[in-house]
Amino acid sequence: MSTKRSDGNKALFTPGPLNCTLSVKKAMLRDLGSRDLEFIQTVKEIRLELLRVAGVGCDEFTALLLQGSGTYAVEAVLHTVLPRSGGKILILVNGAYGRRMQSMCSYVPSIEVVVLEFGEDEAVCEAQVENLLRESKIEFSAVCVVHCETSSGVINPIESIGRAVKRQRPECVFVVDAMSSFGAVELDLRSAGVDFLVSSANKCLQGVPGFAFVIARTKKLLLCQGNARCLSLDLLAQHKGLEGDGQFRFTPPTHALLAFRQALKEFWDEGGPAARAHRYKKNCQIIQDGMRELGFRTLLDKNKKGADGYIISSFRFPDHPNFNFEEFYKNLSALGLVIYPGKVTRAPCFRIGHIGDLNAADMERLIASIKIVLKEMKVENLDAKEE
Ligand SMILES: Cc1ncc(COP(=O)(O)O)c(C=O)c1O
Questions:
Q1: Do 172 and 83 share a domain, yes or no?
Q2: What tens digit of pLDDT does each residue of 120-155 get?
Q3: Residue 85: pLDDT band with limits 50, 70, 90
Q4: Residue 345's pLDDT is what?
Q5: What separation in Å is there between the alpha carbon of 179 and the centre of ligand 1?
Q6: Which atom of ligand 1 lies closest to the CA of 16?
Q7: Are residues 29 and 135 in the same domain?
Q8: Quick check: is 177 in a domain?
Q9: How many whole angstroms separate alpha carbon 235 and alpha carbon 232?
């Protein structure tokens, strides 16, 4: 039995790369020159559309596009906002992507890093952030946090964290990695006091991979002159290029941008952020209900704050002698269904993503196939204890 999609591809229950519609992929089957007026116009439109998705205006914010995956853009923000003379940064960590920001800073010895760490299965606590900022004598230049910690699926309360940051440190730059949430999880940038938000083309906006973007508060970005420690990740220079002649400084991902223009059109045709959230929530519900029925337990305790995320779910390995993740993964992949390994350090887990061009029928197909694969593996009668 194969459960491949109608376009012949496997269904990717992963947080990127993820499935794109055929029409998005078809939109990139063209060559465009980087100085071509149509291309420059496309870049301009995409930048404005991103501000529209973010719910902000170009009077206050600017949308910057950067070649590479999401990590490049997060690193670009850190290098651009932290002063060369040695910035001080507070990183709120509750999973692998928060830790990745910490790791980025470790490459620059002049940066002083303070990490406030939380459990991998819990949300960042805004009260603890506020206490630290109130008590600490350190003059932080930036506070950074992840919106949806994709390693577990937990959603951090960005608006209350941002308000706490701005109450205690109004001058501090507030950076949010919203890689896997932007466009599908509500976030009011203004009331959260977000200065830099990062996401990428191949997440909830369902473009093809190839570039990332930053929604930046223009006033804060313009203060970053002279900070960047390397040429290609200098976001202020990227801004000047895009605002000047409308071009990227270096070879742009033309095909990925054409695909993204189509992806944005399909985003609004579907109904915008609310409709996308609705579809992903439904996908998540089907997976969580189906998996619980099969006897699996989620990593996150559904009664805890932040556990209501609907981007990706982490499931604990079942306590059964015949369960082997590699075999489980391979058998599902042979059926055309790709799941994702776990990324938390303290519990053996795997993950199922709910984003991309997937709908209820895909989710039901996955649950039905998991049932078959478990039977083949003789992993039966799992008994999920209520969390
Ligand atoms: C929250 C978060 N931050 C950063 C990244 C890194 O993005 P990329 O793999 O595109 O570099 C990811 C990837 O899934 C992510 O989910």
A1: yes
A2: 999 999 999 999 999 999 999 999 999 999 999 999
A3: confident
A4: 82
A5: 6
A6: 14
A7: yes
A8: yes
A9: 8
- Band (3; pLDDT cuts 50, 70, 90): low
* Residue-wise pLDDT tens digits, 195-245: 999 999 999 999 999 999 999 999 999 999 999 999 999 999 999 999 999
pLDDT at 16 over 90: no
Q: CA-to-CA distance for 9 and 3, rounded, in angstroms?
A: 9
- DSSP single-letter state for residue 3: -
Owning domain of residue 207: 22-267
Q: For the chain, give the number of residues.
A: 387
∠353-116-281 over CA atoms, to 5°? 20
Distance 84 CA to ligand 1 centre (A): 26
- Both 221 and 318 in one domain: the answer is no
Looking at the structure, do residues 51 and 64 belong to the same domain, yes or no? yes
Same domain, 28 and 95: yes
Residue 344 confidence (pLDDT) above 90: no
Strand 349-353, strand 312-316: pairing = antiparallel
Residue nearest to atom 2 of ligand 1 (CA): 179
Closest of 7, 11, 6, 28 to residue 358, by C-alpha: 11
213 Cα–ligand 1 center, Å: 12
Are 180 and 240 found together in one domain?
A: yes
On whether both 84 and 225 belong to a single domain, the answer is yes
Q: Is residue 105 part of a domain?
A: yes
Q: Which residues pair with 93 in a beta bridge?
A: 117
| Domain-embedded: residue 252 | yes
Residue 16 Cβ < 6 Å to ligand 1: yes
User: How many Cα atoms occupy the beta-carbon half-sphere of 11 within 13 Å?
Assistant: 26
Banded pLDDT at 109 (limits 50, 70, 90): confident
Final residue in a domain of this structure, among 212, 243, 267? 267
Residue 197, helix vs strand vs coil? strand
Task: Report yes or no on 4 lying in a domain.
Answer: no
CA distance 336 to 191: 43
Give the containing element (helix H, strand E) for 289.
helix 272-294
Ligand 1 neighbourhood includes 210 CB (under 6 angstroms):
no
Instruction: Measure CA of the first residue to CA of the last residue in the chain; give whole Å.
Output: 34
* Residue 205 contacts residue 179 (beta carbons within 8 Å): no
Show which of 233, 267, 301 is a domain's final residue. Answer: 267
Output the domain CATH number for residue 58: 3.40.640.10
